[in-house]
Amino acid sequence: MQLLEPILADAHEATAIRRQIHANPELRFEEFATADLVAAQLTAWGIPIHRGLGGTGVVGIVKGTGQGKNAQRAIGLRADMDALPIQEHNQFAHASKNAGKMHACGHDGHTAMLLAAAKYFSKHRNFDGTVYLIFQPAEEGGGGARRMIEDGIFRLFPMDAVFGMHNWPGLKVGTFAMTPGPQMASSNEFTIRITGKGAHAALPHNGCDPVMVAVNIAQALQTIVTRNKKPIDAAVLSITQIHTGDTTNVIPDTAMLNGTVRTFTLEVLDLIEARMREIVAGVCAAFGATAEVEFLRNYPPTINSAPEAAFCADVARAVVGNENVVPNVEPTMGAEDFSFFLLEKPGCYVFIGNGDGAHREMGHGLGPCNLHNPSYDFNDELIPLGATYWVRLAEMWFAQDHQA
C-alpha cells in the first residue's frame, strides 16, 4: 500500500474532523455547520472557494503548478456531506448529538477524505490543470447533485471528467472496486390510488371492491419483470405498502399501493413505467374501478464511462496493488445521486472497502456495521487511503495524453 507520508502525518487531524462531523449530523439541504467547517478548512489552507451551489454546497479550486499540455483542463472530485434521519444506537464519544439524525452512510468520512486530499493539494500541486473539490449537499433523497447542476456548477467550473467514491461495508479495508457501465441502479417510487365503491361486506355486489383490485394489480405488476422485459436485463419492482379499509365488515371506497422500481438502464425503466400504467388501467377497467398512477423518477442509474473506470482501476492499483482492486464489481440495486453528474460528464464512481465493522470503538450499537444502520460507523483507517487515492487520481489524470 503506497500511502502519501504527509497525508499519514495529518491523519489524526482528519480523523478529528470526521468525528466532529459525525457528532453533529445535518440532514439534506441543512448542512450549514458542515459547510462552514469545510469552507473554513479550505480557506485556512489557502484554497479559494465558492459557496451556495445546491444551497449549502462548497467548491474548492485547486490550480496545479504545471504548465504542460493539460494546463487548461480540469476535473472534479466529489464528496457528499449530509446525514440520515436515523436515531443512532452507538454510544461512543463521537456519537450523534442531534436526536434523530445520524451519519449512517459515511458521508462524514467522505468529506474528511476529500479534505485530507485538499490539505495535501494546498502544499503539493504537482500537476497541470485544475482540480475542483466538490462538497455536495443532499445526496440522501434530495438530489443535491442535480441542484448543483441546475445552479451552474459545470458552467462556472468547466471540467472534463468527474469522480466520486463511497465506502462499502463488507469489502475488505485496502480494497477498491468499480465497474465500467452501470454500477448502481436508478431509484424510483410509485403510488397507485384506486377508487372503487364502498359497500357492506355482507353485500359485496352493491359495491366495487378496491381491495380485490389492489390484489390483482399487485399480482399483475410482477409479470412486467418476469414476462415483459428481457431476462438478461436486471430490474426490481417491489410493492412495499398496501393501505385500505378501516374495519372488518365494510368494503372501503379506496385502496393505495406504494413501492419502488430499480433498473440499470433508462430503457428498461421506460418499459416498466409504461406497462405499469397499462396494467393498472386494464385491471381497473375489468373491475369497474378507476385509478391514478404517480411514478416518480428520483435518481437515474449510476453509469461509469468505460475509459474512466479503467483509469480509476489503474489509480487504485498504484495505491493498493493489483490484488486489492476489483475492476468488475457486481453492480448493486442501491442508488446514488452522483448519477446526475455522470449524465453530464464522463467519470467513475468507486467503492472503497470499509471492512466488517471490527474497527468500531467500545460503545457501538449491537447491530451490523451496514449502511443506513443505527450501529454503523465509518472506518477512520480509510481516510489516508481515500485521500491518497484522490491525490494520485489527479496526478495521473493530468499526466495522461488527453487529445481534444
TrEMBL record:
Residue stretches making up the Peptidase M20 dimerisation domain: 189-281
Superkingdom of source: Bacteria
Alphabetized UniProt keyword annotations: Hydrolase
Pfam families: M20_dimer, Peptidase_M20
PANTHER family: METALLOPEPTIDASE, PUTATIVE (AFU_ORTHOLOGUE AFUA_6G09600)-RELATED (PTHR11014:SF63), PEPTIDASE M20 FAMILY MEMBER (PTHR11014)
UniProt cross-references to NCBIfam families, sorted A to Z: amidohydrolases
Name of the molecule in the record: M20 aminoacylase family protein
Organism: Piscinibacterium candidicorallinum
